[in-house]
Design brief:
alpha+beta, 8-stranded mixed β-sheet
Length: about 120
């Protein structure tokens, strides 16, 4: 099934000041991000993605993304079970597709297809 969860992949934190957050996480982790652009900063932490997005709403919390083969299918399946679309499936570049839903219990669940991801051994 294309909506089957394959494991956790990414957690994205919304931040108010991307440069300050990048510096803080770099200091905390002890290494620089592997991806550093004005729209997204990404760290590889033990084979998993820790992402920072600017102009976010930190009190709204982070979004955790589960790997799937087809983000649109996962969202459609969740909708059929009563979830609401929070963020429709969309390509964020380089073939990486994201989307998220809100469950009936108000939990935000993200889905990601990342053809470049290699799980940690």
């Amino acid at each position: 099934m294309s909506h089957t969860l394959q494991g956790l992949r990414t957690i994205v934190y919304p931040v108010l000041d991307l440069q300050r957050a990048r510096s803080w996480w770099s200091d905390f982790l002890g290494f620089a991000p592997y991806f550093d652009e004005p729209f997204y900063v990404g760290f590889n932490v033990g084979g998993y993605e820790l992402g920072l997005v600017p102009d976010g709403n930190p009190p709204s919390g982070s979004t955790t993304y589960w790997a799937v083969d087809d983000v649109g299918s996962a969202i459609a399946h969740a909708q059929s079970l009563g979830a609401e679309v929070r963020e429709a499936a969309h390509d964020v570049g380089d073939g990486i597709v994201l989307g998220s839903i809100t469950t009936s219990d108000a939990h935000v669940v993200g889905f990601v297809f990342n053809p470049h991801f290699e799980p940690a051994p």
